[in-house]
Predict the 3D structure of the following.
Amino acid sequence: MSTTHPPLRLLMFNLMTDVNDPVLGFTTAWIRELATHCEYIDLITMYQGTVDVSDNVRVYSAGREKGLSKPVRVLNFYRHLLRLITSRQYDVCFAHMMPLFAGLGGPLLRLRGIKTVLWYTHRQKSSQLKLGLDMSWRVVSAVKTSFPYETDKLRVIGHGIDTDFYAPDPTQSNPTNSPPIVIQVARLAAIKHQETTIKAIAETDAHLTLVGDVQQGYPDSYKHELKAMTEALKLSHRVKFTGDLLAPDVRDWYRKATVAVNMSPVGLFDKAALESMACGIPTIVCNPEFSHLMGDYADLLMVDSPHDVAGLHDRINHLLTLSVEDRHAIGQTLRAHVTERYSLSRLVMRLVEVLRTGELEGFHRRDEKT
């Protein structure tokens, strides 16, 4: 608990609360860390799976995991919300990737004098997000470009990576891989540009592991295109599609990798790139928001765009020609910078500052200069 402020009494909205979800399972670690600053957290989630939270956290579900219809889920949300705000005291509400709940609950929360802080990191604009923004006191996001609307409510707080979990294998120093492994962790979607990576490894001796799958509810045409491309380029024996994996298995792949690639464009400050860096893996990116983490290695680790096949090929090839010791040195530099700026504990401290005061001293201004 904080020694300088009383612990927060927090109402929280969350999209999915399930420690075993391959995409949003990380939110459990966020909730547990946030709970150390709180007297209690009452959490209303759209979907409840396997819950592993602290004793001072109570979870209430709108019922998506039961297959309930949208109108019934809305009724459940209001049922939970009305009961909680009339029986419990809250200092603030935190909506994590839930502009829908922030918008729906905003009028009732305002009547009770409860301010809402909305976390959102995505380029997509929507009527739900606009309503959530209108109903929120503050918005927090990883970087300025990861929130799609211009607003003076925005406070940039970075990402939160569990750098104790995402870390190099303590039993193996300077691992060698033969053949070398290039890894890309992302959902299979055109905006993630896995096709660029497939083409880039064609003229190397590396194997490529694509960790992730098509997001539920979206067409799988891009996945079929990627598999057809690997066959056309005669790379099927060197490109592995793992599908969605749990976090420990993703970490195992990071630790096996020689090089990581992240082709998410501006607007997607992808935490997967930070995870691979935290594991000490040289990580090639195209989003200039990562440049402040690269130190002296920016020219080696950054390409001009997510379509830059030649640039990505050259950088992968260069990294593969380096000694194990040189790659290790690059990875250790990246890990040190991620740990310094984007560890989970540091993120939550910044978030708590915004939840308490609405402001954040220093970090967002430094971040916007980089």
